[in-house]
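TODO from last week: model 5-formyltetrahydrofolate cyclo-ligase.
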Amino acid sequence: MTDSLDQAKRALRAELRERRQQLSDAQRESAAEGIRVQLEALVDALGARSVSCFLSSPTEPGTRSFINAAIEQGLRVLLPVMREDGLLDWTVASPGGQEVQSALGVPEAVGELLGPIAVNDVDLMIVPAAAVDRGGMRMGWGRGFFDKTLGSMARRPPAYAVIYDSELVDSVPQDVHDQPVTGVVTPTRTVRLPADT
């Protein structure tokens, strides 16, 4: 990654992080409800029986009410667990499941680890992002876990990034390792993007 690309990503991430931190509790709760509604509609539209998702941190668009509702409806939900080698391991979400704070400060589920290839069996991947551009290019938070996972899958299911409405942008700085997504889910809409044609 060139210095100018790295600086552009850092600047955009800092701006997005600050915007997210300025949201009120009421705005976060409203966004989480919107995300739940949009994700449930997406699951129905795709006929998904198994999904991967992530435990949202306090500043991320909330995924927890969706995860709880999905478990109640009998969906199999896989949650990521970061490994030291930069890959993601997976565990099955359970009602009232335990979680810990990872070394990188993000919430992670506690449970039996299924291995990195467990995600190959899901019908839909729901991934975090800092921003996504209209071409479908996803910019994460710089750790590379989801880019490595998405890039390593031979037969990838639809992958949708969960973001706030303002984080669907015209373009994001991109590096050769960055991976596109099928679309985005925001609190008010689900948008399929032209990246996976």
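Done. Helices lie at 3-21, 25-46, 64-72, 145-152.
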